[in-house]
Amino acid sequence: MSPLPSTQSEPDRTKVSSIRQLRQFSNLLDRAIRIPGTSHGIGLDPILGLIPGGGDLLGAVFSGYIVLKAFQFGVPKETLLRMGSNIALETVAGTVPVVGDLFDVAWKANVKNVDLLEAHLENPETGKKADRGFVVLLLGGLLLLVILVSFVSLVAIALLWRLLQSL
Fold first, then answer.
1. Handedness of CA 19, 119, 112, 31 (dihedral sign)
2. I need a surface site. Which of 33, 38, 43, 52 has the fewest CB within 10 A?
3. Under DSSP, is residue 32 helix (H, G, I), strand (E, B) or coil?
């Protein structure tokens, strides 16, 4: 990495450093481990998703951190909603056995969300800035969705287990 130009102010350096850390975090979550023989990677998020019930919840909490940081950078409501939609789609699709796990590996919501953040910072769009209440509702709604999906998954596993025991 090249050093930052000396003409950059301290807040700009902090912003650049923060974006760099978010990019590294999203790569850890979505593509940390290269799949041999391919240019694709798998991250911690899809691996966590394999844990019944709590894995998707933990992954969504990590994903929510990126949305929270985007809010702190002043990303408009529309972009935050797109970020939330990326997480929601990954969470809901991830509940489908096998196919959902493959979708989780391919979708890479965290990388997409950092791309959205960087695109906003490069070309700030005009749009209504989100307030704290909006972000609390957005992240709270995502958390409730993940809890509901986790609960339904655990109930389905329990019912399947009972069915298998009765055979």
1. negative
2. 38
3. coil
C-alpha span between 18 and 4 (Å, rounded): 14
Contact of 109 with 62, CB cutoff 8 Å = no
Alpha-carbon distance 118 to 109, whole Å? Answer: 14
> What is the total residue count of the chain?
167
Q: Which two tokens mark 104?
A: 């989780």
| Domain ranges for the chain | 10-166
Has this prediction a pTM greater than 0.85? no
- Return d(Cα 87, Cα 131) in angstroms, integer: 20
What tens digit of pLDDT does each residue of 97-121 get? 778 888 888 899 999 999 999 999 8
- The 10s digit of each residue's pLDDT in 34-73 is 989 988 889 999 888 888 767 778 888 899 999 999 999 9
- Supply φ then ψ for residue 42, to 5 degrees: -125, 140
Report the C-alpha gap between 90 and 108 in whole angstroms: 8
Among 84, 166, 88, 71, smallest CA distance to 127 is for 71
| Token digits of residue 162 | 């009972």
Residue 27 three-state SS: helix
